[in-house]
Write a sequence for this structure.
């Protein structure tokens, strides 16, 4: 057992941790439906009470204006994607208040924080809280926590709004929701099941049809099915089974109460020595429910390493087959019926095998991918995959056609032309952005790496690496077996020969350069004689190797980021595709496309202590007594640059920066009134390299009210860590993800909750 394992076991052992009672937040209501107000209560409660071990949302039964518990659960489940893992959704058959009291009674050892939402300035909310909590004194483990939000819609307002229009409803939903999720909420509230007196021949009695939906609404269903399937297969494999199996009925009133589709889902895995994913759909069976059936062959040698990749493949396959379900039969979308293409499929098949065996075995004929039904199914499946792997859809499509199918280039052009024409009609944004062809412009075989190799070597030497004598660089352009292997090599450094080997097939040139930067750190380590006595390539078996790899990963990424930023500013187009190529290559290997903006004052720099040391008062007390002008005079006039340079590091800042620096990040800080801080803060950052920062980070200056404008369009992967609530709110409203700083450990926990 290595030291890391021992440490983790000790840390996780109850007798090794400081014991404290479990602390649970309870938020209960009818939520018919959940609105932005309810969402704000949860997020604010978590921010106000960071010591909560979990927050349970009790969702009451009953109906309001036709909206039931199942619909509320579905909507809360959408919101949960944007909430920390500690939020747990619990439907209850009891009155919500009763559920709170019963939980407290049944768990006397648990500290219960009863979360109660109130809108600022709304006296009726506070009156209602007083009425609902009269019996709370009878439960000694209950503490009332009133969470006041600046605004928020009621369920009644939302019920009225969705009856008018989707536009009216969207104003009352959490702003962080994607448009696809807003569409899904609207359609959950507008689900309609019409029973026709006359049977249409669909096999259901009476005939059941489903209301039309906007695209993207099936993502949550697909994600859940993939997760349930994967967990079932993992369990079957762990139990020593030769096959894994999962089955579930989906539809209104069924085991899995999904309002918009009705079908039987079956997923079978055969554990062996090959990998092969297949799927099929039966939209209109002669009897029984429509079906989606998956049959996967999984190589046990690649498990558990392949589970993540299998999850992506599952989502693609499931979404593909669900699209087929909606092309005919009882799940058909109104106005989207498609004629049968049996004869066309049969015409494509040649050879000795029966036609059906061929088209289920190998799809090498480009005409198959031009079939109307297959075009839609492929686009929808690949669109979902692109969203999950965080890459442009055209990039995913190119990889699929080039490497998964290995189709000739002329066939690919024809398929893409047809798909490009069809995509807008089914609301799939396939070919957005640059129209230049990635494969032609950035083909690793023909791409000129020489000036970039020289540039990054010079840059990393300037940043302190020892790289002389320079390594020989070898490109491997034709290693198909390695490219086909999800766990194949990207690059390696051979210290004995001082050679860096780079594998390029199927990779973006900037991704290859990132690997080169990683290996250059190993060159530096070798020149410092730190690569001796390594007998394995398994970092789990060698702590020294783990430290070396961690250093290469962290230092290589940071220096690479520094180099790309300088290259982007100094060159009009170093990668041939300007912003598109730059943005595409920002994805780190095996990482989400996170980018972190870290505030300085009050987060890593102890501004308050510095001000108190010089004035004898904390900042707010000083402003209250002497005014804001005197406050800035003391900083910018009396102490000038020295004020900023003399600030101490915040407690826990080293730990926070160490965690953050694993990802692309920069300092985002507000300048002082007379801009003295721009010089002072710059020097402060420079002084802290080696103690606080592993290398000098980028520093960007923006007034607090304008931090959210640091880039034109924030996404959920743009993370701001700041100690000013108003700045947090503006960032969130602009589409980013903001974390309100309380202390370093709390921020790190929230980053981990996000998946970092």
């Amino acid at each position: 057992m290595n030291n890391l394992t021992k440490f983790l076991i000790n840390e996780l052992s109850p007798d090794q941790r400081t014991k404290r009672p479990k602390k649970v937040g309870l938020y209960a209501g009818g939520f018919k439906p959940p609105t932005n107000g309810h969402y704000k209560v949860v997020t604010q409660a978590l921010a106000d009470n960071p010591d909560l071990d979990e927050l349970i949302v009790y969702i009451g039964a009953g109906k309001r204006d036709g909206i039931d518990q199942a619909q509320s659960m579905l909507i809360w489940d959408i919101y949960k994607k944007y909430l920390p893992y500690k939020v747990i959704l619990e439907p209850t058959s009891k009155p919500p208040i009763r559920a709170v009291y019963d939980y407290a009674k049944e768990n006397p050892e648990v500290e219960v924080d009863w979360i109660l939402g109130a809108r600022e300035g709304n006296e009726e909310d506070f009156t209602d809280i007083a009425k609902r909590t009269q019996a709370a004194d009878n439960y000694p483990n209950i503490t009332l926590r009133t969470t006041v939000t600046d605004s928020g819609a009621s369920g009644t307002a939302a019920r009225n709004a969705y009856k008018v229009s989707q536009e009216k409803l969207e104003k009352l939903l959490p702003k962080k929701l994607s448009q696809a999720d807003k569409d899904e909420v609207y359609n959950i509230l507008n689900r309609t099941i019409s029973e026709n007196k006359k049977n249409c021949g669909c096999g259901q009695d009476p005939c059941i049809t489903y209301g039309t939906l906007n695209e993207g609404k099936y993502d949550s269903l697909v994600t859940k099915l993939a997760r349930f399937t994967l967990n079932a297969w993992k369990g079957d494999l762990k139990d020593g089974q030769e096959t894994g199996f999962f089955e579930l009925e989906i539809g209104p009133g069924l085991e899995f109460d999904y309002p918009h589709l009705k079908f039987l889902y079956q997923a079978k895995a055969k554990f062996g020595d090959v990998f092969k994913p297949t799927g099929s759909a039966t939209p209109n069976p002669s009897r029984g429910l429509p079906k989606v059936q998956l049959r996967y062959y999984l190589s046990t040698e690649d498990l558990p390493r392949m589970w993540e990749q299998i999850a992506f493949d599952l989502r693609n396959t499931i979404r593909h087959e669900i699209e087929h379900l909606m092309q005919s039969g009882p799940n058909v979308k109104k106005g989207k019926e498609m004629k049968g293409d049996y004869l066309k499929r049969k015409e494509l098949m040649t050879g000795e095998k029966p036609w059906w065996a061929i088209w289920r075995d190998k799809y090498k004929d480009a005409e198959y991918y031009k079939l109307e039904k297959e075009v839609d199914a492929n686009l929808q499946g690949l669109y979902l995959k692109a969203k999950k792997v965080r890459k442009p859809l055209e990039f995913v499509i190119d990889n699929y056609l080039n490497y998964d199918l290995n189709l000739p280039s002329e066939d690919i052009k024809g398929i893409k032309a047809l798909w490009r024409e069809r995509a807008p009609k089914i609301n799939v944004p396939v070919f957005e952005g640059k129209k230049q062809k990635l494969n032609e412009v950035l083909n690793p075989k023909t791409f000129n790496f020489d000036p970039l190799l020289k540039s990054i070597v010079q840059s990393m030497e300037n940043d302190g690496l020892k790289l002389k004598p320079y390594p020989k660089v070898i490109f491997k352009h034709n290693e198909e077996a390695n490219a086909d292997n999800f766990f194949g090599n990207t690059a390696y450094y051979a210290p004995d020969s001082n050679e860096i080997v780079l594998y390029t097939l199927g990779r973006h040139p900037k991704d290859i350069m990132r690997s080169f930067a990683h290996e250059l750190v190993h060159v530096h380590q070798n020149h410092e004689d730190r690569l001796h006595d390594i007998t394995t390539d398994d970092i789990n078996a060698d702590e020294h190797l783990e430290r070396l790899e961690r250093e290469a990963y962290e230092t290589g990424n940071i220096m690479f980021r520094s180099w790309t930023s300088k290259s982007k500013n100094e060159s009009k187009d170093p990668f041939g595709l300007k912003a598109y190529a730059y943005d595409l290559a920002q994805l780190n290997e095996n990482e989400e496309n996170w980018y972190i903006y870290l505030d300085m004052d009050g987060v890593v720099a102890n501004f308050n202590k510095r001000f108190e040391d010089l004035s004898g008062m904390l900042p707010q007390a000083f402003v209250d007594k002497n005014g804001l002008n005197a406050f800035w005079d003391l900083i910018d006039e009396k102490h000038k640059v020295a004020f900023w340079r003399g600030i101490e590091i915040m407690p826990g800042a080293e730990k926070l920066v160490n965690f953050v620096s694993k990802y692309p990040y920069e300092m985002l800080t507000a300048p002082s009134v007379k801009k003295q801080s721009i010089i002072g803060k710059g020097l402060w950052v420079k002084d802290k390299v080696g103690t606080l920062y592993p290398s000098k980070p980028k520093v960007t200056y923006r007034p607090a009210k304008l931090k959210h404008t640091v880039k034109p369009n924030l996404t959920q992967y743009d993370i701001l860590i700041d100690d000013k609530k108003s700045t947090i709110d503006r960032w969130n409203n602009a589409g980013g993800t903001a974390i309100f700083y309380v202390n370093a450990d709390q921020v790190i926990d929230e980053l981990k909750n996000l998946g970092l």
Q: What stands out?
A: The mean pLDDT is 77. The chain is about 45% helix and 15% strand. Residues 543-570 form the longest helix (28 residues).
